[in-house]
Design goal:
This protein has helices spanning about 5-30, 30-35, 45-70, 75-90, 100-110, 115-150, 155-170, 170-185, 195-225, 230-250, 260-265, 275-310. It is mainly α. It has one domain.
Length: about 300
């Protein structure tokens, strides 16, 4: 069988390259601005930010564990932590499906049903994205609406948006939306065997995870470039929005380039553009090292525990 030329893969990497080329041009154009910026690396805020960001991952694992309990596929806490972190490596592959395929395979290999695993993965995806959207909406609405309405009359729009959020989160509404997509893709429909209370409780846990991550992000930024406390909420929303758009950008492995581009756009509102580029790239390195480091630690702990059991 003749292999097809990988046009889509090449196009995806070209788009990522274009984004980073643009960011590189920003660095070049604002080099003097970057050289004169007051970068002041500080260990305590950096350590605190890293700790909070790590904790946000474990809160997300807790949310996933609660989901698996509700749909009847729960593993032990140790196995849950290991499978969740191992599957996270799939986000760095193009297509974004590998994170789901990886966890689906890991749970199915332990005798869990495919239908229940699929429901759990949909449950997690929706609540993670909506929790991030809720954080970014609350944090960035005053800024975004102010661009539209110079009088700052954003509160009614915020209330309307929150109302739509919670309507979409209702299992019956969500089930219809998911099954519409599945029918278009030629897949079998799913039945969401969870209550509205389940959805809200998991949303709250994921909201806590994003909030912790946003606070950690603030301390990380402040450890390199001084930022006042008044921007804590803004930076939390910026990180959440950048991650959402990075996740939904299926062409970018791990949101590569997309997350940086969004962060630069938002950070440029509170600091020089060149500094925003530098910090967005450092954020990528910081988050990647944390993720890979946690997977490495979990792997070592998991296998040392296995050897002891033997």
């Amino acid at each position: 069988m003749k292999k097809r030329f990988p046009f889509k893969q090449i196009a995806k990497w070209i788009l990522v390259l274009i984004i980073f080329t643009y960011l590189g041009k920003m660095v070049r154009d604002h080099w003097n601005e970057i050289r004169s910026a007051s970068f002041t690396p500080r260990g305590v805020p950096f350590g605190l930010g890293t700790f909070l960001f790590i904790m946000s991952y474990f809160v997300q694992v807790g949310a996933w564990y609660l989901i698996t309990l509700k749909v009847g596929i729960a593993l032990s806490l140790r196995e849950t932590v290991a499978t969740w972190f191992y599957s996270q490596l799939g986000k760095y592959l193009p297509g974004k499906v590998w994170i789901f395929i990886g966890r689906f395979y890991l749970y199915q290999s332990k005798g869990r049903g495919g239908q229940e695993i699929s429901v759990a993965l949909y449950f997690e995806t929706v609540t993670v994205l909506m929790a991030a959207g809720l954080v970014s909406l609350i944090a960035l609405a005053p800024v975004g609406i102010h661009w539209i309405d110079s009088r700052g009359g954003w509160f009614p729009i915020l209330l309307l948006s929150l109302g739509l959020f919670f309507l979409i989160l209702h299992p019956r509404v969500l089930e219809k939306m998911i099954n519409l997509i599945l029918s278009i893709l030629g897949r079998n429909p799913l039945r969401l065997s969870v209550s509205y209370g389940d959805m809200l409780s998991i949303l709250l846990v994921n909201f806590l995870a994003w909030s912790l991550g946003g606070l950690g992000f603030y301390f990380f930024i402040d450890s390199i470039f001084p930022v006042t406390w008044e921007y804590v909420l803004f930076l939390s929303g910026a990180l959440a929005l950048a991650n959402i758009l990075g996740l939904v950008a299926v062409f970018a492995p791990g949101g590569l380039g997309v997350r940086e581009g969004v962060l630069v756009t938002l950070l440029s509102q509170i600091m020089p553009g060149g500094v925003a580029v530098v910090l967005s790239i450092l954020t990528r390195l910081w988050m990647t090292l944390i993720e890979v480091g946690l997977v490495g630690v979990i792997y070592l702990c998991d296998h040392s525990g296995t050897r002891q059991d033997r």
